[in-house]
Amino acid sequence: MDNKLFLIIYRFGQKNKSMYNLLFKVTHASVLFFQIMYAILLLYAFIYVNSHFYKIVLAPLASLALNYILRYYIKRPRPYIQNTIPLPFNHKGGYSFPSNHACSSMAIAISYLYIIKPLGFLLILCALITGFSRVTSGLHYPFDILSGFLIAAICSLFYVIII
């Protein structure tokens, strides 16, 4: 089911070259963009120190740590390997499930919801686009993306609401 959905989304991206080129740029630029957003979040937390902000800063780290642990044990091959899809760029490889990009971008976006709501919603939209771009680029299955988003949401809720 996940592979069928992947192939539908991937082929959809391949049919529209201008959209594919845009999403290809998004998938690569999103790494730096969300790293900068996290650095700004750290700076904000450092300047406006109170007991609430350490939770906002730790939620993305906890999300990514859980993601790496799951990825280490699950070891799901990337769809471009499993479907023998040629990539128009070099990729370092690694495993597919769950998506680190989806997890970290969503965790950072959710953290912003607690301090600057409009920016948080905008970043959630950026995270969703990033996730979609990872599927159209052949790097992830849809379930990898959804799982990364879910891990981010659960960790963020745990850190911000429960702790």
Characterization of this structure:
The chain is an all-alpha fold. It has one domain (2-162). 77% of the residues lie in helices and 0% in strands. It is globular, with a radius of gyration of 16 Å. The termini are far apart.
Shape descriptor reads globular
> How many E-type strands?
0
Helix content: over 70%
Q: Give the tally of structural domains.
A: 1
- Mean pLDDT, to the nearest integer, reads 83
* Estimated radius of gyration: 16 Å
Helices and strands in order:
Blueprint: H1 2-15, H2 17-47, H3 53-74, H4 79-82, H5 100-113, H6 117-136, H7 142-162
Helix pairs in contact: 2-3, 2-5, 2-6, 3-5, 3-7, 5-6, 5-7
How would you summarize what this structure contains?
By secondary structure, the protein is mainly alpha-helical. Helices cover 77% and strands 0% of the residues. It has one domain (2-162).
